[in-house]
Amino acid sequence: MGHQIKDMLLECSFAGGKCYPENFTHFYSNNYGNCYTLQHEKFISRTSGPSGGLELVLHLETEEYVPYFTTNNGIRVVVHEPNSLPFPDENGLSVMPGTNTFIGIKQVNVTRLPTKYDNCSNDDYNQIYNFAYTLYTCQSICEYNRIRDECNCSSNANREIQNVLKTDNDTHCRNNKTDCVRTKHFERDTSQCDCKNPCKETLYQEVISSTKWPTAEYATVFSIPICHVKNLTCGFAGEKLIQEFVKLNIFYQDLNHQVIVEKADYEIYQLFSDIGGTLGLWIGISVLGIFEVVHLIIRVAVFLITGRCAQTKPK
């Protein structure tokens, strides 16, 4: 049920090369229905700018929207770390129909110190769930498990997590269970979850701009061959036809990336070095003091001996 990528995807290219519906993987979102992820080891940006990134042209299939239930028109886009679980509700960007939207991204690599210095986690979710660890993923899994344990049912609000955990056989929370689920959602106490920031994390800073696309004349010419090939319902004209399409460009602004690395402000070897330096200073002062005392004793002794001899010497 819902929109299929083979029907929505009109054009797809990455760095000048073609991409196809088979390159997308499907996952289900509770609020947005069918979602699709494009991720492949061959899709590598070697140049910055729109020509070196991803270009998509999508047909929104507004004729399939459910009347009175659909509140807006457009698509939701998430640029996320490879092999990580996307959350369109929390991290997505909304793209308006009838526009050519440019999303320029900059990669930021964050490396945090291990637990004895900072509150970070090295949990390898790839071995357990087959996707990368993130803080929000950990919190979502924790919340889902709390509802399942305390309400004896699974929440429909976290269908993404339910699909990952493969708990489709759990009893869904309905009727008298709803109040329990709502309470747990509002009481989202992350302190009960052992979730920490990942020790290594890749983030993306986005800069968004858009222009109106396509024009009414181009939309008419553009839609005729597409509707014929894909057997689509394109009986629209003018502004309504424009609202059927979205063009999206996602690319690196430049091929430089920012690296943020946490370092200990005061290492253990610095502590021992400072202790040794301080002890050396005080020991040095103590040795000098001893020599001064010995020198004083010698001078007093010499004075007593030479002075007494001078008094007893005959004239």
Average pLDDT level: 80
**Quaternary organisation:** single chain
Give the helices and strands as they follow along the chain. Answer: HEEEEEEHEEEHHHHEEHHEEH
Helical coverage, percent range: 25-40%
Give a structural overview:
With 315 residues, the protein is an alpha/beta fold. 35% of the residues lie in helices and 23% in strands. The protein has 9 helices and 13 strands. The strands form 4 sheets. Strands 1, 2, 5, 8, 11, 12 and 13 form a 7-stranded mixed beta sheet that branches. The protein has a two-stranded antiparallel ribbon with strand order 3-4. The protein has a two-stranded antiparallel sheet with strand order 6-7. A hairpin with a 3-residue loop joins strand 3 and strand 4. The longest helix is centred in the C-terminal third of the chain and has 45 residues. The radius of gyration is 35 Å and the shape is elongated.
Question: Would you spell out the secondary-structure blueprint of this structure?
Answer:
Layout: H1 5-8, E1 9-14, E2 17-18, E3 24-29, E4 33-38, E5 54-59, E6 75-77, H2 88-91, E7 93-95, E8 99-111, E9 120-121, H3 125-128, H4 135-151, H5 159-165, H6 178-186, E10 197-198, E11 200-212, H7 216-230, H8 239-242, E12 245-252, E13 258-261, H9 268-312
Parallel strand pairs: 8-12, 8-13, 9-10
Antiparallel strand pairs: 1-2, 1-5, 3-4, 5-12, 6-7, 8-11
Helix pairs in contact: 4-6
Structure described in brief:
The protein is an alpha/beta fold and 315 residues long. The protein has helices at residues 5-8, 88-91, 125-128, 135-151, 159-165, 178-186, 216-230, 239-242, 268-312; strands at 9-14, 17-18, 24-29, 33-38, 54-59, 75-77, 93-95, 99-111, 120-121, 197-198, 200-212, 245-252, 258-261. Strand 3 and strand 4 (33-38) form a beta hairpin.
